[in-house]
Amino acid sequence: MAPIFSFPAVILALLITSSTASVCGTTDYDPSKYVCWYSSFLCPYTNGSPLSYCNGACYSPHMYHCTDGVLALNTIITSPVSLTISNPTLPDLDGYPVRACSQKFSTGYYSQTCTYCPKDVVRSCPNSTTTVIFPSNSLDVLVPGGQRWYVDPSGALGFTQAHSAYIPPGSQVDGFQAYEGGMLVNLRSPWGWVACLAGREIPGVGSGYEVFQQLGPEVKEGCFGVDILVGPPEAGFAVWEYT
């Protein structure tokens, strides 16, 4: 019987690595984690999208642009915007809108927008299924007194009830910014946004994902890093109030 040799695990690992690795300049890299610019410069993927390259720096085109080797911020948006989740590696989340319901923001197939309009007061009630916000910290609504959105101490995006100014103590209520053709950013946090499997049922629908500000360098189990892209909403106010 011919002898049976055990293939060393380390050699097998090297062969597997070499079959999937690429070379950028003189550096081996994993093309699922990095992109090679101009055959010389490596930039990482973040939330499923590769960073672009500009004169020695990696940057997100959702926030910056590069002109003649000079990096500059995209135009800041202050007008109302709709929100869309972006992470091309997560088909259950990528491209789904962010929606306001039950004083939380959710996304994914099972998310929904929850609204109310007093038909005895308002002759023609706006009844959009789109959630529209002002990037600073308010919702685009008609109800007197308006509604605000915030990041609560757990990191969850929430919003105030109509006719109430209550926001949980310790919540972040400012420091948010949106960029034209780009994304919503929390300027007071370096960690970005995550979508987490909901620990509760979305009313009448089922489990979905809730949107959070990531609070530390590690993404918690059941959560996934995402970008929140901004886009133009429908004309006019979306709703009377969100519930």
UniProtKB/TrEMBL annotation:
It comes from the Eukaryota. Pfam families: Carb_bind. Transmembrane segments: none annotated. Keywords: Signal. Residues 1-21 form the signal peptide. InterPro entries: Eng1_septum (IPR018909), PhiA_domain (IPR052820). Residues 24-71 form the Endo-1,3(4)-beta-glucanase 1 carbohydrate binding domain. The keyword Signal applies. Coiled coil: none annotated. GO terms for molecular function: carbohydrate binding. PANTHER family: PROTEIN, PUTATIVE (AFU_ORTHOLOGUE AFUA_6G03560)-RELATED. This is Endo-1,3(4)-beta-glucanase 1 carbohydrate binding domain-containing protein. It comes from Lophium mytilinum.
